[in-house]
């Protein structure tokens, strides 16, 4: 595989190939996630019983009623409850993991129960931005930006193997400017969306659903936004309709 300064050459096998590549966390990684959450939950559960016994010896301590109830239970009960809670958290973590299905004519991204499909013709460039996978359209807009914990080289090889152009960095990174209220040069309505998004970003972080939805609203106005330490950076593009399914 050859490389330029920032772009890996696509090396697909032709548009008629029916080969499909599926990328997701390995079985061992998934089992490790479950085991970690279950063990952590069980450990915290075992700590509950001695903590409750200690609290009931302190007349001034708050939550005496709940502490007495927990102290009366066998130690295995809160440990089992903690394990169950850990299992639920493991299910949530697996649900949020990104799975990628690639062929020469389309890419399918599945995360948090949501599936998005883009035709090969719609995708101009693919790259990683920190822990996120980004697909760019030919108009310079972002088709999607997804949390991605998969091995970067494995993902890059899969995309280039199906004929997609892979960039080592964002080809538009020098166009971004930090947003502050009333920034000039934004399309009408974008400043209000960025203001609302900043509030959600500061309160709930970048993974918040409102933050994601407001990013999509900004994209409809021709604005790309990226986050760094809960600060927003933006650039504009001339929007065209992506080939998405």
From TrEMBL:
The UniProt record lists the keyword Transmembrane helix: yes
Record key words, sorted: Membrane, Transmembrane, Transmembrane helix
Superkingdom, taxonomy of origin: Bacteria
Family annotation (InterPro entries): CysS_C, PH_YqeB
Stretches assigned to the Cysteinyl-tRNA ligase anticodon binding domain: 183-235
Residue span, YqeB PH domain: 21-167
Annotated transmembrane regions: 28-49, 69-93
Name used for this protein in its record: Uncharacterized protein
Source taxonomy: Bacteria, Bacillati, Actinomycetota, Actinomycetes, Kitasatosporales
Gene: yqeB
């Amino acid at each position: 595989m050859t490389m330029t300064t920032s772009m890996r050459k696509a090396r697909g096998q032709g548009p008629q190939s029916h080969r499909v590549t599926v990328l997701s966390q390995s079985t061992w990684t998934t089992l490790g996630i479950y085991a970690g959450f279950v063990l952590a939950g069980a450990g915290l559960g075992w700590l509950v019983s001695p903590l409750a016994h200690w609290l009931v010896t302190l007349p001034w301590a708050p939550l005496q009623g709940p502490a007495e109830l927990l102290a009366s239970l066998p130690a295995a009960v809160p440990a089992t409850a903690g394990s169950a809670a850990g299992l639920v958290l493991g299910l949530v973590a697996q649900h949020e993991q990104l799975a990628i299905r690639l062929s020469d004519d389309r890419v399918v991204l599945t995360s948090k129960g949501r599936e998005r499909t883009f035709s090969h013709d719609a995708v101009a460039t693919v790259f990683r931005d920190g822990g996120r996978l980004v697909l760019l359209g030919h108009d310079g807009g972002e088709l999607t930006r997804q949390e991605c914990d998969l091995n970067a080289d494995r993902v890059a090889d899969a995309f280039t193997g199906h004929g997609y152009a892979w960039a080592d960095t964002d080809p538009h990174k020098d166009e971004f400017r930090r947003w502050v209220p009333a920034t000039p040069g934004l399309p009408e309505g974008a400043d209000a969306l960025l203001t609302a998004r900043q509030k959600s970003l500061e309160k709930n972080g970048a993974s918040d659903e409102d933050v994601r939805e407001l990013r999509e609203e900004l994209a409809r106005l021709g604005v790309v936004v990226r986050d760094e330490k809960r600060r927003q950076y933006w650039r504009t593009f001339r929007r065209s309709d992506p080939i998405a399914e």
